[in-house]
Automatic annotation (TrEMBL):
<dbReference type="Pfam" id="PF13377">
    <property type="entry name" value="Peripla_BP_3"/>
</dbReference>
<dbReference type="Pfam" id="PF08220">
    <property type="entry name" value="HTH_DeoR"/>
</dbReference>
<dbReference type="InterPro" id="IPR028082">
    <property type="entry name" value="Peripla_BP_I"/>
</dbReference>
<dbReference type="InterPro" id="IPR001034">
    <property type="entry name" value="DeoR_HTH"/>
</dbReference>
<dbReference type="InterPro" id="IPR046335">
    <property type="entry name" value="LacI/GalR-like_sensor"/>
</dbReference>
<feature type="region of interest" description="Disordered">
    <location>
        <begin position="334"/>
        <end position="372"/>
    </location>
</feature>
<dbReference type="InterPro" id="IPR018356">
    <property type="entry name" value="Tscrpt_reg_HTH_DeoR_CS"/>
</dbReference>
<feature type="domain" description="HTH deoR-type">
    <location>
        <begin position="5"/>
        <end position="60"/>
    </location>
</feature>
<keyword id="KW-0238">DNA-binding</keyword>
<keyword id="KW-0805">Transcription regulation</keyword>
<feature type="compositionally biased region" description="Gly residues">
    <location>
        <begin position="335"/>
        <end position="349"/>
    </location>
</feature>
<keyword id="KW-0804">Transcription</keyword>
<dbReference type="InterPro" id="IPR036390">
    <property type="entry name" value="WH_DNA-bd_sf"/>
</dbReference>
<protein>
    <submittedName>
        <fullName>Substrate-binding domain-containing protein</fullName>
    </submittedName>
</protein>
<dbReference type="InterPro" id="IPR036388">
    <property type="entry name" value="WH-like_DNA-bd_sf"/>
</dbReference>
């Protein structure tokens, strides 16, 4: 298979980082490409600030005299961000991370996995080769087996790392990693409580099962039913619009049957795109939202743009990116000052990096690892009937 430019750039950066300075001709020989190709690559990497170029040689960037980094980290610390996508849900997460990095004088380097977890480790190594001193990682997991199958490498990272919108099994190798996540169980509870307050019996859940968010919504649905004392009105319906047209139509028909039989009057649908297409297809079958079916979407990316604006649960995506970046910078400051690092030889968050008052010379106790759960909000619009109810009362 032919090597991509990105892969070649990673190898070039690794060589320059290892040697400090390298001649273009030597790099060409090591990479197995022409000097012209290396010069072109170096131009690209220089524009991005990843290397410095001078008189036929390439150097790793040096700190500029007098330039203050974040909390004593040196000149402009580099943070790596691995995300499964740069669009839809994760666009806001990335924006939040970028804003926090910019405020701290750090540079953020992004890689996208396209939900292919088998390549996450290689992409993370590429970020390290590009100079990342700490990593923000949202693995491209799609199902429940992926963390065990494709996530073990995270526990051995040589730099501090923070998980984004991902959790880990208690007691597992990733449980001690810092992480910042939306509390999707709380978001589901908000939706079900709101629909119950509108006079509906337990809503049916329409949700795919091919992402960590979807799986968290499914788990949160069962927890919310128990908390509210409601019985499940119908098995969870999978209606994956776009990915599986036949499966989507089966889901639509299952929901249509439940509504026309009078068993269901409300639904929570993950995600916005599926919800919008579901509403459109139900209208073709004579089911109106919110007339015959009150509906709440989950994600709130494009829910407000539907013909009938959709009430939606809005996870705090931008805040997840911002707080995760601030947490990672805090870890890097602690590492630079000799505190908790999660770096080589310690294992991220293993809790053994020195304990105050243990007779070891008074080493400072490291800051505890953190699992931050941010609460989603419910944004009420027309699809749940609340707007009509308010108009009738007014």
């Amino acid at each position: 298979m032919r090597e991509s430019a990105v892969q070649r750039h990673d190898r070039l950066l690794t060589l320059v980082r290892e040697h400090g300075t390298a001649r273009v001709t030597d790099l060409a020989a090591r990479l197995g490409v022409s000097p012209v190709t290396v010069r072109r690559d170096v131009e690209t990497l220089t524009r991005k600030g990843l290397v410095e170029r001078a008189h036929g040689s390439v150097s790793w960037p040096r700190p500029r005299t007098g330039e203050a980094g974040a909390g004593g980290l040196g000149a402009r610390p580099v943070l790596g961000l691995l995300a499964p996508s740069a669009t839809y849900y994760f666009a806001e997460v990335i924006h939040g991370a970028h804003e926090a990095a910019a405020r701290a004088g750090a540079r953020l380097v992004l890689r996208i996995s396209d939900y292919r977890p088998e390549g996450d480790r290689t992409r993370a190594e590429g970020l390290l080769a590009a100079g990342a001193e700490g990593l923000l990682i949202a693995p491209g997991w799609r199902d429940r087996a992926d963390p065990a199958e494709h996530g073990g490498w995270l526990a051995g990272l040589p730099v501090p790392a923070v998980l984004l919108e991902r959790t880990a099994d208690p007691g597992g190798p990733l449980a001690a990693l810092d992480r910042v996540c939306s509390d999707h169980a709380h978001g589901v509870l908000l939706a079900l409580r709101h629909l119950a307050g509108q006079g509906h019996a337990a809503p049916v859940l329409v949700a795919r099962a091919d992402s960590p968010t979807a799986l968290a919504v499914r788990t949160g649905y069962d927890e919310a039913l128990r908390a509210l004392g409601l019985e499940r009105p119908h098995p969870v319906i999978d209606a994956p619009a776009g990915r599986d047209p036949e499966g989507f139509e089966r889901g639509v028909q299952a929901l249509w049957t439940a509504v026309t039989a009078g068993r269901v009057t409300a639904a929570l649908v993950h995600n916005d795109v599926d919800a919008i297409q579901l509403v459109q297809r139900l209208a073709e079958l004579g089911i109106r939202v919110p007339g015959e079916l009150a509906l709440v979407a989950y994600d709130d990316e494009v829910a407000a743009l539907a013909d009938t604006p959709l009430t939606a649960v809005a996870p705090p995506k931008r805040e997840v990116g911002r707080l995760a970046t601030e947490l990672l910078l805090e870890r890097l400051r602690g590492r630079a000052g000799g505190g908790a690092s999660g770096g080589p030889g310690t294992g991220p968050g293993d809790g053994r990096e020195g304990v105050a008052g243990d007779g070891t010379g008074g080493r400072a106790e490291p800051a505890p690892r953190r699992h931050l759960a941010l609460l989603p909000r419910l944004r009420v619009r027309a699809s749940c009937g609340a707007a009509e109810a308010r108009a009738a009362r007014g």
